[in-house]
Amino acid sequence: MKRKFQDIYKQLSERIEAGSYQAGTTLPSEHQLAVTYNASRETIRKALKMLSEHGYIQKVQGKGSIVLDMSRINFPFSGVTTFRELSQKLGSRTKTEVIQLKQELGQLGEEGMVWHVHRVRHIDGERIILDKDIFSAQAVPHLTKEISEQSIYDYIENELELTISFAHKEIVIEEPSKEDHNYLDLAENHVIVVIRSYTYLEDATLFQYTESRHRSDKFRFVDFARRVKK
What we know:
Elements: H1 4-17, H2 30-36, H3 41-53, E1 57-60, E2 64-67, E3 73-76, H4 83-90, E4 94-108, E5 110-123, E6 126-136, H5 145-150, H6 152-159, E7 164-174, H7 178-183, E8 192-201, E9 206-215, E10 219-222
Parallel strand pairs: 3-10
Antiparallel strand pairs: 1-2, 4-5, 5-6, 6-9, 7-8, 8-9
Helix pairs in contact: 1-3, 2-3
């Protein structure tokens, strides 16, 4: 069961993302929030702590909870998150453009037929992500432009009934390539944040390699870490 502080966190984070609380302003006091949400001060503190950990606010002694600039989109790079799932938070602000979809002989773990899927992700009318995917055609025998424009993971999980389990990822900063300049809206000073992922099914079969190239000015790459004392 979701705890109340998590529900309050969700409501406050959505209001910050929607611009109801502007960057640089302060949230209502703990007492005001406790009254608004009919919650204890301790519950409000937990929700504020979660907002701070996820980059929404900065708690400043004597000033309260200051809202941080959310013009950069939080991207949880440690999870196996799809663009469609990110899009659900952003509403109609997003669009996917399929620029390549072909099947050919290749290598993904073992040699065989693979799909090459290249997609440009638009947010607020700007081209800000270039996703270059290779899928095993043995695991995913059928793909279309329509599926690729919506969600390949949704198709894999709900139509093919496969379980996507885990991924190995690396994140690096690179100078833009010629391809980046062709497909992304870049300024002279932009660099590219590249996330390379190998993703596996429940039986540990490698079925996908992704190179996801992001405009660095549009994203905040976040993770939630908890220390385990040894």
